[in-house]
Amino acid sequence: HASLKVVDWDREWALNLDYTRREVVLPSPSLDLALAGGVAPGTSGLDNGGRFSITRWTGSLTWDGWKAARLRLDLRDVQRSGSRLFSFYGLGAPYVARTSLDERVQEAGISLETRAWPVKVLLEQDITKYSREPRGAVGNNGQPLAGTDPDVLATYTTGRDSDTVPTTRLSAVYNSGRFEFVGQGLYRRDRLHANNNNDLATYAIDGGKAGQIGYLDALMGSADTDTKLADLRLGFVATGWLTLRARGHWADVSTDSTLVGLTALQLAGPGGTLDFSLPIDDRGYLDRTDKDIAAEADLHSGPFGLVVAYHDGSREIAWLHGADYTPEGVTRDARGWSATASLALGRTLTAQVGYDDSSFERYVFRTDPKTVTRLWAKLSARPAAGWEIDAHGSRERMDNPSQVAALNRPTDALGVAATYTAAGGAFASLSVDSLKLTSDVAISYWAPLLTASLSHYETDLLTTSLRASLPIGTAVRLTGGGLYIKDRGESAPFTSKAYDLEVEVPGPFATRLAIFGNHWMYDLRSLPDQNYDVTRYGVSVRRRF
Predict the structure, then answer these.
(1) CA angle in degrees (0–180, nearest 5) for 86-263-33
(2) pLDDT > 90: what percent of the chain?
(3) 8 A C-beta contact, residue 112 and residue 122
(4) In 327-407, at which residue ranges do the beta strands (DSSP E only) sit?
(5) Which residues, 6 or more positions from 339, have their beta carbon under 8 angstroms from its beta carbon?
(6) Contact (CB, 8 A) for 146 and 38
């Protein structure tokens, strides 16, 4: 990692550059097949699932020499290259393929922010290009993972895709003390083009003695998505203790997709070749429109405050799966209210308690809730110089009727954090968070007759974090910390630990040298093949200009 910041003498412009490179080693692809029961974790020859590097360049140039506005240019380039193994099933057996990664994201944006006008305006325009050109190849020498099937994977190739996304954002803010206005708008256009005219998987039957079977997808597709968003907030200070606000939200997202080409089965043997092809010409769409309006009364007197709000909205969705399907659509209405009480005693103590209640009509997905209720509280205290204490808690409930999906999803969260900062620059922080989530949904499956059952998921996370930094004299600084995460839920219990320690000392030529060490541990009970224990040591050189 390297970064550079340059500011001219009168601070009219500033240049920021940042470079990061990260190496990633992937776990064994046998994980996917182990989940499906196809192969045991830790299969010989597949301990390395591949590796790739992520290179990130970011830069910004800000011009602040104009009193009326600030101009900023941002650039970003992220590239992922390397290779990875992944598992799949073909001819009823598990196989492995290797793909070379060549993925890139390039982004450029410009923004203009006014400062001297009564209305503060921010205009942003950026364009992002995504490209992916993987090159597929045979993995594991074409041999099936089970080791008992004589059929060999002979050929594996993949296609490419790209996406260009221009985005325009506009926001305006006005506040005269009695009237307030906030408006935001966004338009984004996604254009995805996929060229998979040579997706081919070929199998040599009995090692090629009996011929070959090939599956070819010669397809070209596109998906165009237009996203339009608008938010508006109007406020009026009616009295010294009452402010009235109205809010509006509108969002429209429409996607049209096209897929043309053919899919083919190719047979080759001693007697010749035979192709069975099926032409593909399919089109579909998914349109979503959200509307919501809300009214809010903000009452305040001294350190006390109360905000009561009511909202009414809808989500309209229309879709077509493909040319052979019938267009469908549904409108899901929502309404609800909320109340928030607050207490603010300067920086010494602030507290908030709130309750939200929402109900819905009709369902887009069977797991959509019918009712949602949430009770929450936040507390922030500064009891003495250097001390900061924050606490939060929430209790949320989601459900829908038994004739829909019998959804029952309770979520409880609780956390507290304390930080002490000394005048000499030393600090210590400790935080403890608990999150418990359970989700029950009624399902049916064939076994072999249609059988009713329950899909149950549970996570019970306990997260503890400790960090501290201590200056030793005027030249040396000692910094370290630890993170402990434990999931005690029934679905996928695990334990994760991370520790780090760094000693920073002066170096030559006005540099700072940091000697550091890190340790990570992950223990997943259900899939021990994915456990790891990693220790890293290193030295970094830092120079500020």
Answers:
(1) 20
(2) 55
(3) yes
(4) 328-345, 349-361, 371-381, 387-399
(5) 306, 307, 308, 309, 354, 355
(6) yes
Residue entry with tokens 């070379």: 100
Cβ contact 226:254 at 8 Å: yes
| Mean pLDDT calculated for residue range 466-476 | 92
Paired residues of 526 in beta bridges: none
CA proximity to 318, closest of 307, 327, 305, 326: 327
**SS3 call for 397:** strand
* CA geometry: angle 257, 260, 262, nearest 5 deg: 140
CA distance 1 to 20: 4
Q: Provide the residue count of the chain.
A: 545
Would you identify the CATH topology of the domain 365-545? Porin (2.40.160)
pLDDT tens-place string over residues 318-371: 999 877 788 999 999 999 999 999 999 988 999 999 999 999 999 988 999 999
d(CA 279, CA 275): 13
Alpha-carbon distance 59 to 74, whole Å? Answer: 6
**Bond preceding residue 383 cis, omega within 30 of 0:** no
Calpha distance 406→93 (Å, rounded)? 37
Residue 93, amino acid? A
- Helix ranges, 23-177 (H): 30-35
For Cα atoms 470, 473, 477, give the angle at the middle one, nearest 5 degrees: 35
Predicted local distance difference test score (pLDDT) of residue 58: 96
Residue 372 structure tokens: 């949602």
Which one, of 392, 376, 385, 389, lies nearest residue 349 by Cα? 389
pTM, entire model = 0.77
Among residues 140, 136, 166, which one has the least CA distance to residue 152? 140
In the chain, the amino acid numbered 121 is V
The HSE-up count of residue 55 (CA atoms within 13 Å, CB side) is 9
Torsion of CA 207, 213, 217, 218, to 10 degrees: 100
Angle subtended at Cα 265 by Cα 264 and Cα 267, rounded to the nearest 5 degrees = 140
| 148-165 core/surface letters (b: 16 or more CB in 10 A; e: else) | ebebbbbebbbbbbebeb
